[in-house]
Amino acid sequence: MQKNEIISINSSSDVVLVRQAVRQFAVELAFSLINQTKIVTGASELARNTLEHGGGGTVNIEALDRGTRRGLRLTFEDSGPGIPDIELALKDGFTTGNGLGMGLSGTKRLVNEFEIVSRVGEGTRITITKWK
Amino acid sequence: MERIAILQMGHFLLVTIQVDMHDHLAMTLQDDLTNRISKTSARGVLIDISALEIVDSFIGRILANIAKMSRILDAETVVVGMQPAVAITLVELGLSLKGIRTALNVEKGMALLRSSLGDSQGGSMDGDAEK
Predict the structure, then answer these.
(1) Pairwise CB contact (< 8 Å): B93 & A92
(2) Of A97, B1, B32, B81, which has the fewest Cβ atoms less than 10 A away?
(3) Closest partner CB to B89 (pick from A20, A103, A110)
(4) What is the residue range of B10's domain?
(5) Exposed (0-12), middle (13-18) or buried (19+): which is A130, by Cβ within 10 Å?
(6) How far is residue B16 from each of residues B37, B45, B126, measured CA to CA in Å?
């Protein structure tokens, strides 16, 4: 199978494309339906954040094969304003937009690994990994 | 422009979401439904999401908005057919969809709408409903 794919996120239809591509990878890795749903939902949340808070960016979708361990890693990058207080941004219910404030904190609960690197004025990179 | 069809059946409006909605399409549905409720004096809205493979926080918010707006316009909303994997993911994501009534399928959803109106007119083919 294809090992990685990079998709640019510049419109709300790109968010749909990201969901479909992530679904495709998860199916090919033979993820269970629940794990497919979790990683696709997380991808949707982060792709929308990249678009709305980061002013657009990219996602790198990677299939991981570590011997017996297979998984899916998604890296979202933007060159937007960055997140001044990551701890606050990760709190349930915290929102700067008009959403429900569950995007970041909720996504963290849907995956196995979650990493966020952000510099004010430079951009944000969020990496999530779901193991099969 | 791409739109999701809204069907009228008596005093009810029926929507089946069968595409992977981008955010603008979901917002268009919210606006269209609100307008149709007002125009048709509909008493109930049934939204079938059995074909939806995910519900994220945005779609969750749209569904909650539709339920709130329809209530203000004197109509009840029932969301039916959520897939089990979607329900599990929603709970872990932290969305409880408070204020949204749900049913397992269209038939149970229709029954819920009819009983909540407590009358026999709902759902009947009423030629005057459009006027």
Answers:
(1) no
(2) B1
(3) A110
(4) 6-116
(5) buried
(6) 16, 11, 21
- Residue B127 inside a domain? The answer is no
DSSP string of B54-122, one letter each residue: ---HHHHHHHHHHHHHHHHTT-EEEEE---HHHHHHHHHHT---TT-EEESSHHHHHHHHHHHHTSS-T
B27 touches A: beta carbon within 8 Å: no
Residue of A109, A105, A111 whose CA lies nearest to A73: A111
Per-residue pLDDT tens for A83-100?
988 888 888 877 766 565
Closest Cα in chain B, distance from residue A60 (Å)? 20
Nearest-CA residue of chain A relative to B97? A100
B53–A106 C-beta distance less than 8 A = no
Which domain does A78 fall in, by range? 4-131
CATH number at residue A72: 3.30.565.10
Tally of structural domains, chain A: 1
CB contact under 8 A, A37 and B85: yes
For chain B, the domain total comes to 1
CB B85 to CB A34 under 8 A?
yes
Nearest to A92 among B61, B92, B94 (CB): B94
Distance (Å, whole) CA A38 – CA A71: 13
List, as one string, the DSSP characters of A19-55.
HHHHHHHHHHTT--HHHHHHHHHHHHHHHHHHHHTSS
B4-36 pLDDT, tens digit per residue, is 999 999 999 999 999 999 999 999 999 999 999
Using CA coordinates, name the residue in chain B closest to A15: B22
